């Protein structure tokens, strides 16, 4: 099979960020001749600043400014040498002060990202292993990726899931010397904490476990000498813990700091830690400002500043508790996240707050799942209580208006974040829409369904009845599906939208590169359901093509699409799915924008192929319809081999032949990791024999070409006949011992076209994959996309960690 094109993660991120930029809430420029921290000027308006990460406001402290200015005048704008050779004169003093703060050996780095790139590959040895919290900062994850090239296992757990962490430790314990768990002290989006005390207990239980914390958001506003949240819990730094703090953000200057109580390990890192050796050192102004900040941290003043900030954080918490705003985490950190669910609601809410005079951050994919978009609000010492109160009043007023504007509700958002619901009236706009929901095609009008959805793939009314009957009461969970049908009509009972969804178990790597799937299949030999998820998907894994009827000329078509999404959210909650998928769309920019706003991100699907040029009557006429290149291919690779086969169309093959057909199907299934799904049960093919709409195109090599005396099938196409209009070669089976020599796959493609012509049908739905081969026989290739909404990003990030030799 030809290689499948895979979605580029960066393309998805680009789409999301581009939409936010167009909404005017991202990639903005601050204006003005000065900046004091309390306000920020955007588009000629001064807004109260609730988006800073300088929580103590030290970046505006006159002592830091004076130190930076003096250093520039004395030493210049930079000291352009690697620290491996020589540090400029101010470095020694800074290092001594930071050492006093932590009372442990430290290393100053240019910033935390370069620091992780320097430390992680140096500290983690070839015999070690790594486990990442899936919400640990991108800079840690990026640095950990480097380890994979050395064959070091890099695993991932769901956020703060200690049970999963312990399972991973047990798995790695026999393979690894040290096992490093990497997490944030405080997470930058939701403001929640790592379970430090529990992690220390776990490291006592498993001495192999070492802990690596990025605590840049916990720095300064917490802990003795402002050493951060992690140190506030630990009190003393054990040798099995590495800690990163920052000299930026709340510290008020630039740079980052690694703290390491293991003196031998500290020496190794300092001697050769990648960017530590080959990157430029901090500028004199940054070092001087950091040194001035360190003086504050080493004085009683730091506790006064911490208490002032804590008072404002507590005040904000108090005000929020008297509202219905969906605050994702209640804690005493300066980071707050108000969920909006859909990106479009986030855009509208931020826009409204900016017009009201408040600047806040929008938290969106990939920092959070697309459907978990929200507004990140940070409290700093710059903020006065009066404007904090005004912000809460503005949010309380504008939040329901943003919900109404985007046709959603508070409880709908709360469900997306697994928050308790509130007793508030739904804000979904009433539309003159009638929703018919059924759990079986038998309850749907056959004539209407076929009019709206027939003549495509295998999902006319009879085709869906067949699929329903097969995928129930099966032995394995992956072959038990539930079906969900929607028809949405206007008040005159005219259909605007029709579709169906299936709830089934998917492999998370279904569309991942083949190399990734091959790696996972090795693990699935021990655990068949490793990295699998229950998905609510438009269409089914058995069907392909345009699964959505949408009357775009109807004035309520967008409302119907929104109503479908609302109905699906309720179904998701009931079924406890991890992913919602809208499948197999042709290029449609308008639909693309709507689904992005609803919290979906686009994924490129394998190309689909259709053959519908039946203007010919003879094989010679058919050949004449092909391009010159395809004609040469046909004359060389298809036509000469046709006479080598006995070709039959079978509706009721013998059981012995059906057994062979199934084995041939498994050959192809197990050879194609590019579209990695579970294998279908044998009784699916047995039911095909009993159904009048199914038939088998069978190729048997003539005896003179066979290596054994017993003639047997070497190729089979499993074909569905849809309403005397569309011929659907759903699946194929091949004997790879003869396939290449006798061009069996290409012969089956041609025989499928011939059979369709003989039946008088008008179209062949060739489906996905192998588009290059199908194009050679005259098929039209159609690019397809799907749209995915995930409950979390864990599976996406986990797959990114797996080796992929094809990249």
UniProtKB/TrEMBL annotation:
Database matches in SUPFAM superfamilies? Acyl-CoA N-acyltransferases (Nat), PLP-dependent transferases
Keywords, comma-separated and alphabetical: Aminotransferase, Transferase
State the coiled-coil residue ranges. Answer: none
Domain Aminotransferase class I/classII large per the UniProt entry, residue ranges: 48-394
Q: Where is the BioF2-like acetyltransferase domain?
A: 631-772
Single Gene Ontology MF annotation: pyridoxal phosphate binding
**Do you know which InterPro entries this protein is assigned to?**
Acyl_CoA_acyltransferase, Aminotransferase_I/II_large, AON_synthase_class-II, BioF2-like_GNAT_dom, PyrdxlP-dep_Trfase, PyrdxlP-dep_Trfase_major, PyrdxlP-dep_Trfase_small
Cofactor(s) needed by this chain: pyridoxal 5'-phosphate
Q: Which domain of life is it from?
A: Bacteria
UniProt name for this protein? Aminotransferase class I and II
Source organism of the structure:
Gillisia limnaea (strain DSM 15749 / LMG 21470 / R-8282)
